[in-house]
Design a protein that fits this description.
Layout: H1 2-17, E1 22-32, E2 36-45, E3 50-60, E4 63-74, E5 80-85, E6 95-99, E7 105-111, H2 124-137, E8 143-146, H3 153-159, E9 167-172, E10 184-189, E11 192-196, E12 201-204, E13 207-210, H4 243-253, E14 259-262, H5 269-276, E15 280-283, H6 289-303, E16 332-334, E17 340-342, H7 348-358
Parallel strand pairs: 14-15
Antiparallel strand pairs: 1-2, 2-3, 3-4, 4-5, 6-7, 7-9, 8-11, 9-10, 10-11, 12-13, 16-17
Helix pairs in contact: 4-5, 5-6
Length: 366
Amino acid sequence: MIQTYFTQIKRIIDQYATTSFVLEAQIQFDMRPGNQGYLTGTLIFADDSKLHFSEYVDQTGEVVAKLMYTYHYQDTGNQLIFRYDNALHKPALPSVEHKKSNGLPVRIYQHHGFRIETISLATFEEREDAIRAEFADKFGSLFRGNQIQKENAFQRSLLDYMDKSSLYTVDYIPSRGKNEGQETTLYYHDRELFAWLKDTASLEDGHIVKSSRVTTVWTHAEIPKANIANEGGVKFPRGKKPEQLLCRSIEMSKHEGDMVFDSFAGSGITGAVAHKMGRRWIMVELGEHCHTHILPRLKKVIDGKDPTGITETANWKGGGGFRYYRLGPSLIVEDAWGNPIINPALNAAMLAEAMCKLGGGYVCPQ
């Protein structure tokens, strides 16, 4: 149903995009777990005004409901003409105007008469079902406060206008980031910035599922390498990679049972990690560490005697196996005069196997 809704929206926008008063149309769709979806986009009109829009939708049965929506129409100078959304709106309350580095105004509003409630986690073990149900029921309004980092000069400059007792909202247009060029609202209380749960989680079958996007920037904390020298029980100075790094790469690109190929096996980390993750693997190595590093490492993995790397997080207990092949001599070589000849190093059995392989067959012993 959500995909059908997305298709209808795209068809409507495509129709507008063919008219003379729309210069450009941009839209992105994102399916979320738990029968939910998110769309965001921008329409740029012939007079260079812009309509920024976004919707967070949820499917219940045959009904697609908008949990959150924003439609912001701005003029050529990015000044707001009108806004239509289900966010907290600003009554006639005191406000001040602040300037951001991009020269656009930053409006700060002070609110009174609000109410912030907490969900008690006392006796969680006995009340777990009730607490989780309340979390799911209030999912769209759950938040926690984050202290502003000292390094964030812009955010800290906003705190100069705020006390601890009031609720504040800040409207501004970011010059970079995921909301670049779009009217954005931030919420503050107790001089802390709201971090909404809905921004990093979703509802799936009535349960809150925490999620995070995998980025191309992986921090040291995410890929620890403190014990890398001992991983796999083999020494490979200046050539080893952390098992957690390979785990993350394989997890992003391969499913369980898929094949992973490494033509420069090195210390055998690819095969070790893929094996622990339930993936099949092929490795190729020309160096002697094929015997001194790779074989011993893989045997420990299969025997369940490698406690290092991702063994614990993958809940690896051992099992499986592998086949080891040595590359045979070339069938065709050159003689002293540069003429191609059959390799004299091949005996009759090896020659028969080679010819059989070239013909697409297999050799059956005995």
